[in-house]
Amino acid sequence: MNSFQISAVLSVVFSLVSCSAEDKDKTAMKVSNEVPAAPSGQVVKTDAEWKKELTPEQYRILRESGTERPNGEVYKEFKHQGKGLYLCAGCKVVLFSSDHKFDSGCGWPSFYDPAKADHVVLKKDVSMGSVRTEVTCAKCGGHLGHVFEGEGYKTPTDKRYCINGGGLIFVPASDAEGTK
After folding, report:
1. Which of helix, strand or coil describes residue 70?
2. Which residue, 30, 40, 131, 162, has most beta carbons within 10 Å?
């Protein structure tokens, strides 16, 4: 991406980030086994195209539902990132905001809410011998991690979006100040 494209993306990103009370109401966990209707501008690519655009680790996480190891280098970076937004590494849509991040102690990036509820899709996941709720990107279908509810965290939602940091791109708020 050149600097003009980055500026354009960042201006769109920051225009989408404000969370109204209406958006908060949409964050109730809605889990489905059905494939949701495609969001406008859905990104659809072949495996070969994804492999060209993503790093091997991003591909493993986003396209093969991989999980990065806990407390890894990406998590250490996440803990020190300040204000900003977290975009999908596959399609660059805004997924999470630093305003919703918290330290859950689990070893993976944790958020109590997405930046925009309709940018993530929750799916029933019965892999690994248990029932969990998978979080995927609504635009490209990339696997992000899982969401857990009712664990007793002192957050506004008592949800923990346990997300693979390798599937995210952090955009510091300071990088977009001139593009609002």
Report:
1. coil
2. 162
